[in-house]
Specification:
Number of strands: 6
Number of helices: 5
Largest sheet: 2 strands, antiparallel
């Protein structure tokens, strides 16, 4: 039987014929993380976004009795919300860049992960929730029930962007008319209590969504633009522009802001697998 290479514990398993490399071929082809907390958080994200749209229509736009106003702002919010949810789904169901578990060691790559047996290139980290090593892993986000890594980072960036924009739209719709009415002395406190509660809930959902998504978008963009590691196949430190193209796509186009378009082919940065 083949000997286990030094410094690569766990890369081989004991089978009928002795020690042999593990194969990821039996892994399921659809990527989904069966984490209870992540499933609850991801479901809550969809529920809050959908309820935000329903309340915006029922508690604000339709009572205004201005068809053009309601149509324009309703369409804009639901466009942003649809793009946010599409980005969320792509982030959740896209393999973030999982390395094959138990892959045989390759020259020039880092050591084997003691937890999953993957041979890790620079920038890869093991996620204890996904139970895999992820290429260029940034963090595991329970709100998308997945890791944010090399292959789904674009979708996560778009999810935070469209969520922040949709929430900001709602905040402006609620705040600007209220502040204008207060400044003119036209503030009306005779709004039914049930409607007040709906508007307060809508405002709080939008405020929290804007703060959370806006902060995550800012962190992601800063991390992408200042990534000190060069991109695969490019010697030296990559520029901010190169880093941005590595995440969004090889050339600027409308595909950069579309959750339905992948970032495009990447240079090989280590073993890959469909999970």
């Amino acid at each position: 039987p083949p000997a286990v290479p030094p410094h690569h514990p766990g890369c081989y398993t004991l089978g009928p014929a002795g020690l042999a490399p593990r194969s990821p071929a039996a892994a399921p082809r659809v990527w989904f993380v069966p984490d209870a907390l992540g499933i609850v958080c991801a479901s809550a994200t969809w529920a809050l976004t959908l309820s935000e749209g329903a309340l915006l229509l029922s508690a604000w736009l339709l009572p205004a009795q201005q068809p053009a106003y309601s149509a324009v702002h309703g369409s804009l919010f639901h466009l942003l919300a649809s793009l946010a949810l599409a980005s969320h789904a792509r982030t959740m169901f896209t393999d973030p860049g999982a390395l094959p578990a138990g892959a045989p060691p390759a020259p020039g790559l880092a050591g084997c992960c003691p937890l999953c047996g993957a041979v890790r290139p620079p920038g890869a980290h093991h996620c204890r929730v996904c139970q895999r090593c992820i290429r260029r892993a940034h963090h595991h986000c329970p709100w998308v029930n997945n890791c944010v890594g090399e292959d789904n980072r674009k979708f996560f960036v778009l999810f935070t962007l469209y969520t922040a924009l949709g929430a900001l739209h709602v905040l402006l719709l609620l705040s600007v008319p209220a502040l204008r009415a207060y400044a003119r002395g036209e503030w009306d406190l005779r709004t039914p209590v049930r409607l007040q509660a709906s508007l307060l809930f809508l405002f709080m959902v939008a405020l929290n969504g804007f703060l959370f998504a806006g902060l995550m978008f800012t962190i992601q963009m800063h991390s992408i633009l200042t990534d000190p590691q060069s991109q695969p196949g490019e010697p030296g430190q990559a520029s901010a522009w190169t880093n941005l193209k590595a995440v969004l796509g090889p050339r600027p186009s409308p595909a950069w802001i579309s959750p339905f378009a992948s970032a495009g082919p990447r240079a090989a940065s280590g073993p890959q697998a469909v999970v």
